[in-house]
Amino acid sequence: MANVEHSGRPADAYRTAAALVTAAPVAGRLRAARLGLWALAALLAARQVTEALADAHLTAPGTWPGLHLVPRAGGSPYDPARFTGTPFAGLLLRPLAGAGQAVLGLAWTGGTLLLVAALGLTAVRALPRPVGRRTALLAAPAAISLLLVSAPVRDTLWPGRTAVLPGLLILPVLLVLLGCLTVRGERAGGLCVGAAAALQPALLLFVPLLWCTGRRRAALSAAASFAGCTALAWAAAPPGSAAHWPHLAGAGLGGGGGTGRFPLGALLPHAGLTGPPATGLFLALGAAVAVLGLRRAVRYARDGQFLLAVAVTGCAAVAVSPGAWRYQLLWLLLTVAGRVGRRAADRPVWPAAVIVVATLPAKMVLPGGAALDPVRENLPLLAALAAATAVPFLSRTSPHFRTPVPQEYAGPDPFRRVRHLRFLPFLPTVALPRAVSAPLLRRVLTRPNLLLELLLIRVTYAAYSSVRAAAQGDRATAEAHGHQVHVVERALHIAVEHGVNHAVVALPRLEHFLTFYYETFHFVVPPILLAVLWARRPADYRWARAALGLATVLGLVGFWCYPLAPPRLMPGLGFVDTVHGVQDFSRPDYGVMTAVTNQYAAMPSLHFGWALWSAVVIVAVARGRWVRALGLVHPLCTVAAIVATANHWVLDAVGGAAVVGLGFALTSLLWGPRAAPPALTAAGHLPDARTPRTERSRLPR
Predict the structure, then answer these.
(1) Is residue 120 left, alpha or beta, with left meaning phi > 0 and alpha meaning psi from -120 to 50?
(2) Contact assessment for residue 176 and residue 206, using Cβ atoms and an 8 Å cutoff
(3) Which of 148, 201, 397, 633 is the most exposed, fewest CB within 10 Å of its CB?
(4) Do 201 and 76 belong to one domain?
(5) Do 154 and 73 lie in a common domain?
(6) What is the pLDDT of residue 429?
(7) Of 344, 368, 389, which residue is a domain's last?
(8) Cα–Cα distances in Å, from 561 out to 71, 345, 419, 422, 646?
(9) How many CB atoms lie within 10 A of CB 525?
(10) Cβ of 424: how many Cβ atoms within 10 Å?
């Protein structure tokens, strides 16, 4: 405080001191966030090291084809069981041929982690300005963590399982970033780019990028460096190089490999093209992608977004790269540096899509179905093609580059100013803590981005299905829990499942209706309701979506902690399974149904929980009495269906109601309670729709 310079006026000194006092907690929170992110990166690295060193598929380096630089003349360099690198890559990795298995594992894992750390730090340093020092310090561990969980790096950390070596995956990307963005001097930068192209020939696409951006000396140096490295490998092993390069040049153009060995060529068979037409179309598409990607990259480089320019060029190189293109998708991760969308709600769409594509299996991003198989199999490639040719990254001259259109938030809720709450009239007043008396997050009023919502819902549901299936308990425990629930229900005189089940079986039409209701409405009503809310009531959509998500997460906790056999899977109790047919209790897996879903995910019943959530939302947002009545009928029909079909106990429905109630409570705690609907005017009408947007945002919703 003594070193602060200020004017002689007391007011200025007071404001300066107040600013310093306010900045101290902010700096402390940033320091804590930075330490937390670095700790997360360290944990991910430790996990990857543990899994890689414990892998039983480590292969002695002497058995890798290609390390001796003599590939078989009749073989294909694209064979996944063979070495897929260039002769120069084999020359660099030849010293590993004499290493033992333990030394190889340590060198492989340690070298890969060092390359990942260097790549993350280099990419963060190249972020477009203005990027403050604090932002860079936070972005570095986040970038390293993202690289560690990405599919290319995960595959690299499993030596011996694939023919792609770590030097062929991460080192070329790092060399290009250093040559284009970090290394001083055009000749030194060109040497780095040329060495990277000697490891992956498709990276020669960076030579015209350097030329078109005015770095012609660097472009010439890169070309000379590539030629020198290739000549060195040719001199070290003439037979291997003589067999590799001619075969590589012809494999994608009707030779041994076919166009399917190239990324773009892999898409052509789905269009029904083979032979010379496929080759011609492949050449045309490859040239178009390369030219368009280079033009976009040059434009971004001249705009000052050098990291984005390099990433776009790398994505274009992926499209025309021979061999194992799936392991070169680190370029796609680097496109996160670009900004897409004018609204603040649109900014997370492209980063979220890239992270999901690069880290999760394609089956979690797209649902099943033969029609989507071509897209699902080539999803990373399609994302790289989109980044190279179509994604509208913003220019730095755009007024929305730094300041996007902001979100609209609800004003302070007057009910949250009251720190005392009476839950029921006959209970004493409860004093809420100050932290609970105000919402932790601001409630957004504007409509979220549709693509981001669809991606979020799809990935969340896929993760829910995976965790639900993984929470499979053993049969003995699940049946023991089933007996416990049955005993409790008999003590409470609510064990009505057996009687209801057999009564419904005696009425075939009612049985078919309840079976259809059980199999259909659970998957139809919530998505339709969310779609209507997104289109008509965006503020209520966010509130309802959050409550549903929290309730589902709590339901997963119940599945994991308390595996429960439903009535239909309880031997000796005489229940009839009206949905799946007669169960064979002599088989622990109960036939094919175990492969479809977790048979013991019964407590809580999310069938009833989601139906109750739908009813609460409909009653809260609907204005018509008949609509509200229909909303209340849905959970009643659902509880009748789950009990009559012997898929749930009555207490399962109680558990479903409990998790939904907790979901709404947590939503109210985090974002505040749902606001009241718009008040009617004196004439009995809603406020005029022509009211300015800023004024309508202050109206009660």
Answers:
(1) alpha
(2) yes
(3) 397
(4) yes
(5) yes
(6) 53
(7) 389
(8) 54, 37, 35, 33, 22
(9) 19
(10) 6
Residue type, 540: D
- Cβ–Cβ under 8 Å, residues 171 and 116: no
**Across the chain, what does the average pLDDT equal?**
75
Residues 456 and 383 in one domain: no
pLDDT at 222: 94
Q: Give the bridge partners for 409, in sequence order.
A: 444
Query: Which pairs with CB-CB distance under 8 Å and at least 24 residues apart come from 32-39?
Result: 33/138, 34/137, 34/138, 34/141, 37/138, 37/141, 37/142, 37/145, 38/141
If you average pLDDT over residues 363-372, what whole number do you get? 76
Q: Cα-flanking dihedrals φ and ψ of residue 409, to 5°? A: -115, 150
Q: Residue 635: which domain range? A: 452-671
**Number of domains composing the chain:** 2
What long-range pairs does 32-38 form, CB within 8 A, spacing at least 24? Answer: 33/138, 34/137, 34/138, 34/141, 37/138, 37/141, 37/142, 37/145, 38/141
Same structural domain, 363 and 493? no
Going along 524-663, which residue ranges are E strands?
A: none
Contact present, 115 and 196 (Cβ < 8 Å): no
**8 Å CB contact between 639 and 597:** no
C-alpha closest to that of 333 among 182, 123, 162, 130: 123
Q: Is residue 548 part of a domain?
A: yes
Query: Do 464 and 538 reside in the same domain of the chain?
Result: yes
- Are 609 and 657 contacting, i.e. CB atoms less than 8 angstroms apart? yes
SS3 652: helix
Residue 658 in this model has a pLDDT that exceeds 90: yes
Same-domain status, 468 and 359: no
Q: φ, ψ for residue 96 (rounded to 5)?
A: -75, -15
* CA distance linking residue 526 with residue 460, whole number of Å: 14
Whether 317 is in a domain gets the answer yes
How far is the C-alpha of 305 from the C-alpha of 395, rounded, in Å?
A: 8
pLDDT at 500 over 60: yes
Alpha-carbon gap, residue 318 to 388, rounded angstroms = 10
pLDDT tens string 229-251: 989 888 877 776 777 777 666 54
54 falls within a domain: yes
Say if residue 132 is in the same domain as residue 277. Answer: yes
Looking at the domain assignment, is residue 544 inside a domain? yes
pLDDT tens per residue across span 69-95:
434 334 444 344 455 567 787 777 666
Helix (H, G, I), strand (E, B) or coil at 150: coil
> Of 374, 389, 404, which marks where a domain is finished?
389
Residue whose pair of structure tokens reads 């106990």 in the numeric block: 649
Closest CA to 526 of 622, 635, 625: 635
Residues 376, 304 share a domain: yes
d(CA 44, CA 50): 10
